[in-house]
Design goal:
By secondary structure, the protein is of the alpha/beta class. The chain has eleven helices and 15 strands. The chain has two domains: 44-116 and 280-331 and 348-366 and 374-409, HAD superfamily/HAD-like (Rossmann fold, 3-Layer(aba) Sandwich); 120-273, Rossmann fold (3-Layer(aba) Sandwich), CATH 3.40.50. Helices cover 33% and strands 13% of the residues. Bound molecules: magnesium ion. This is Haloacid dehalogenase-like hydrolase domain-containing 5.
Length: 413
């Protein structure tokens, strides 16, 4: 993979760090280590889920606040590399970083935040293509921030072709529309997160795929393979204030896949699926951790990652899949060293393990009477085995998780 091209754009802002330090010094008293005590370069880092681990709704979980007070050194800087990995996507990266900075009382840089669609930055071959973008909130800003320079929203497409969106009687055109022939063809589809008005998005995305990007023209035979589709956030459900879970973007994808399959007899194909538990997201996170360590001048290679989350289906499964990948990659590197082939990227990675830690402050409830076989809520393209949902450790909260990791690393907490 073109691994670190994007990483070169990461910037270190010493002024911001100094301001963060100044703001945090007052809260650093009472820690167990003495002033002037210096730690060596860390060889481990954290991938932290956000909802259910650090925050619930808009409120910080107290254990997370305490954990971050301990996670900064007397200069107010993080003692080890940390990235925040969330499946949320209908928000801007810098806005999420601002939210976390305020909640955790610790400066969080935008490039420490990985949203579900962040790895789309890697797909530069599509950045100049004319892409239909689906989602809600700041979809155009998000697509631009990911590198896409030529995006069309579902609403813009609907305006250009008003006869396509016919489910809602109130929104049907009242006058006869002139069919446009000057609308440039769509060349791909970005599914960033769950949209509103699903019937409109499902209809228009399907139209684009069946017409090879020219929804003003009907094609006798739909092209296959169809235009490239990049999608993020496969979560079927999520927990909000309601007692029962709510539809997530995974439910929208399920609808789109079912419609496409029914209409064409063929399977909707994804160029890439990202967000936890996809390997792509963890590879991206690993590279950001490595960049963060380099920026801080930590010379020791990062060898072990600890992934803390509250959702077995995304956080635990993703961390375990990544751990399996690392183990296989290491074997590949050994094979390479023995002259049997292997990728340069595998040779570059220094990470050897990813430990999954499940906390009990969010979705997961310990000791819940397990009904027989729970239904499979993962995505069609991901096959799960029950073992992948077993965390290496189950602890009460994120502070316990960090204490455990520091203890394993022989570092004072
Ligand atoms: Mg969560």
């Amino acid at each position: 993979m073109a691994a670190l091209r994007w990483a070169a754009a990461l910037r270190w802002a010493p002024g911001q760090a100094a301001r963060a330090a100044a703001g945090l010094l007052g809260r650093c008293s009472g820690r167990s280590y003495a002033a002037g005590w210096a730690e060596s370069s860390p060889t481990f880092g954290f991938l932290l889920d956000i909802d259910g681990v650090l925050v619930r709704g808009h409120r910080v979980i107290p254990a997370a606040l305490e954990a971050f007070h301990r996670l900064v050194n007397p200069q107010g800087q993080l003692r080890v590399p940390v990235v925040f990995v969330t499946n949320a996507g209908n928000i801007l990266q810098h806005r999420k970083a601002q939210e976390l900075s305020a909640l955790l009382e610790c400066k969080v840089e935008p490039d420490q935040v990985i949203l579900s669609h962040s790895p789309m930055k890697l797909f530069s071959q599509y950045h100049d293509k004319r892409m239909l973008v689906s989602g809600q909130g700041p979809v155009v800003e998000n697509a631009r921030a990911l590198g896409f320079r030529n995006v069309v929203t579902v609403d813009e497409l609907r305006t250009a072709f008003p006869v396509l969106d016919m489910v809602d009687l109130e929104r049907r055109p009242t006058a006869t529309s002139v069919l446009r022939s000057d609308f440039p063809a769509i060349e791909g589809v970005l599914l960033l997160g769950e949209p509103v008005r699903w019937e409109t998005s499902l209809q228009l995305i399907t139209d684009v795929l069946l017409s090879n990007g020219n929804p003003g023209n009907g094609l006798v035979t739909a092209p296959y393979p169809h235009l490239p589709v990049l999608a993020s956030n496969m979560d079927l459900l999520w927990m909000a204030e309601a007692k029962m879970p709510r539809f997530g973007h995974g439910t929208f994808l399920l609808c789109l896949e079912a419609i496409y399959q029914k209409l064409t007899g063929k399977e909707l194909q994804y160029e890439a699926l990202m967000g936890k538990p996809s390997l792509l997201t963890y590879q991206y996170a690993e590279a950001l951790i490595r960049q963060q360590a380099e920026r801080r001048g930590w010379t020791a290679p990062i060898q072990r990652l600890y992934a803390v989350g509250d959702n077995p289906m995304s956080d635990v499964c993703g961390a375990n899949l990544f751990h399996q990948y690392l183990q296989m990659a290491e074997r590949g590197v050994r094979a390479e060293q023995q002259g049997a082939g292997g990728s340069q990227e595998q040779l570059r990675s220094t990470t050897r393990s990813c430990t999954s830690i499940l906390v009990c402050t969010g979705v997961y409830r310990p000791g819940e009477p397990g009904s027989k076989e729970p239904p499979f809520h993962g995505h069609r393209d991901f096959s799960f085995s029950p073992g992948l949902l077993q965390a290496s450790h189950v602890v009460e909260d994120v502070q316990e998780a960090m204490r455990l990791a520091f203890h394993e690393e022989g570092w004072p907490w």
